[in-house]
Specification:
Layout: H1 2-50
Length: 51
C-alpha cells in the first residue's frame, strides 16, 4: 500500500514540475517576443536617425 501511494505522489510531483515548466516556457516565449518587438522598434528609430 505504501509503495502505491508513494508512486502516486511521485507522479503528482512530476506532473506539477511539467506544468511549471510549461508555464516557464510560455513566459520565456512571451519575453522573447517582447524583445524581438523592441529590437525591431530600435532598428526603425536607428534608420530614421540615419536618414
Amino acid at each position: 500500500m505504501i509503495a502505491v501511494s508513494h508512486l502516486h505522489g511521485t507522479h503528482k510531483s512530476i506532473d506539477y514540475k511539467r506544468r511549471s515548466q510549461q508555464k516557464l516556457d510560455a513566459l520565456l516565449l512571451d519575453e522573447e517576443a517582447k524583445l524581438a518587438h523592441l529590437s525591431n522598434e530600435l532598428d526603425k528609430i536607428e534608420s530614421a536617425l540615419q536618414s
